From TrEMBL:
Subcellular location, record wording: Membrane
Native species: Clostridium acetireducens DSM 10703
Segments crossing the lipid bilayer: 89-110, 258-276, 310-328
Protein EC: 3.4.24.-
SMART domains for the chain: PDZ
GO biological process: proteolysis
Name of the encoding gene: rasP
Descriptive protein name: Zinc metalloprotease
Membrane disposition: Multi-pass membrane protein
Amino acid sequence: MYIIGALLAFSVLVIVHEFGHFILAKLNGVKVEEFSLGMGPKLFGIKGKETEYTVKILPIGGYVKMLGEDGAETTDQRAFINKTPVQKLSIVAAGPIMNFIFAILMFALIASVRGYLSPVVSELEPNKPAIVAGIKPGDKIIGVNNKKILTWEDFVTEVYLSNGSALNIKLNRNDKIENVKIVPIKDVNEKKYIVGIYPTQVTNPSLVNSMKYGFIESNSLVKQTFAFLKTLFKGNVSKNDFGGPVTIIRVSGQAAKAGIISLTAFAAYLSVQLAIFNIIPFPALDGGWIFLLLIEIITGKKFDDNKVGFINYIGFAILMTLMVLVTIKDILYPIKF
């Protein structure tokens, strides 16, 4: 049941993403030939007026197939290839944008239901770094090492990434700025770095504050993700720091066990990751198309559609190979949590 719930949650993210492409394609007068959920052989499909809606055997990913997106020449004005660069850009960018919007709405929904944690100190643990450094209840944490802190999760991330190094904390105390230095210590039981601070729980937030939290939390996740990618490209991560489809389903299953709110929060988190992954300027990804279209808009020079189609084909093959390798890694070296 939990695995089914996890698969359904992931499917919703794919539908949201592809619906962005689908609706903008329709608005720009592009013929959509297929709207697919999943990959591989077709399980079943429903034929609409001009679009076939299909479900594939592998519950991972999905796509919207538009007339002329493969680069093949056609005189049909409803073909993607015959649209202006701006129209193409709006269609391609709509997928990641929809994932960001979905994440914002889900985080806002969660906030309205259970409230959220604010980076305002409510309590301090005795004999821990925070209270020793002079932090007091009511202090609002607004910065760590010259980085803005907007959510409690921002602060926790900085403590986690500190690896025990000193943190320069900027506080708002009664509308006055205070600066303190804290050296996190490792919690023996939880095996993570802590400073001994409890945040403030905001309950029954207004609709405006819930939406504001949705924006802030999504923005925080974007920053954290790019920080991880930076660490990844530097080669400072191990095989236990990332996972693929199997890990996603495992974690989603655990989130489902914890309840609908936890599953919704994880779905919102994944939605942000899906959006960021898709805007990476790599062939076959939305980001690859966005990169080419922006160059085309700026220079006014059109790329050879056949060459673009071939490059995207190669990019897709590389991505599929990568997915297989990461899946094998998930099976042989599963992440422990």
